[in-house]
Amino acid sequence: MSKLELRIPPVLLMFICLIGMWTTAVLTPAASLSFPWVKLVAGVFFLLGGVLPILSVVEFRRAKTTLDPRFPESSSYLVSRGVFGVSRNPIYLGFVLLLIGVAWLLMNLAAVFWIVAFVLYMTRFQIQPEERHMKEKFAEEFDSYLASVRRWL
User: Fold this and answer.
1) Contact 24, 110 (CB under 8 A)
2) Are 106 and 31 a contacting pair, CB within 8 Å?
3) Is the pLDDT of residue 2 over 90?
4) How far apart are CA 100 and CA 120, in angstroms?
5) Region 17-37 average pLDDT
6) Angle between helices 112-122 and 10-27 (to 10 degrees)
7) Checking phi first, is residue 12 left (phi over 0); if not, alpha (psi -120 to 50) or beta?
8) pLDDT confidence of residue 1
9) I want to staple 83 with a disulfide (CB 3.0 to 4.6 A). Which of 28, 50, 90, 101 is the partner?
10) Pick from 3, 5, 1, 38: which is nearest to 122 by CA?
């Protein structure tokens, strides 16, 4: 197990990436693009990116299980209904959609690096360790869930 696993709260990582995106856009104006309906497209991503985490929190509260992703061993219930029936990680997917919305607003191709970095980091240091814990705790139920629901979308 790596020292980075389950260490950085995902919401903090998203904010780090947001700052990185903005800084990158400022430092690389040559990578700027132009596209019609920038605010409309960004707004759609913001809406979807905001709704998914909210719906996810509702499902966690209904199940009366932990919401803190740094301690998956504290989970008391495998949430697989609602948005968790579409994505195993709807909160993280929501964060990615928010980052995509910011990238659209910035209209800077270099800022996309931060979205890719977020997905790669989350997959390796957050999602895979969470899934190991869920496999240990919920065994066959989790195997069935893995077979029926995709990790991201």
Assistant:
1) yes
2) no
3) no
4) 15
5) 96
6) 160
7) alpha
8) 63
9) 90
10) 5
Fill in the amino acid letter for 56. S
Q: Check: CB of residue 8 under 8 Å from CB of residue 125.
A: yes
Structure tokens at 67: 């919401």
The candidate with the shortest Cα–Cα distance to 89, out of 149, 134, 42, 32, is 149
Instruction: Give the whole-angstrom CA distance, residue 129 versus residue 106.
Output: 33
Average pLDDT over residues 104-119: 97
d(CA 115, CA 72): 24
Enter the tokens of residue 75: 């989970």
Mean pLDDT of the 58-84 span: 93
Residues 131, 67, 103, 111: what is their CA dihedral angle, to the nearest 10 degrees? -60
Total-model pTM: 0.95
* Spatial contact of 134 and 75, defined as CB atoms under 8 Å apart: yes
- The letter for the amino acid at 68 is D
The count of residues in the chain is 153
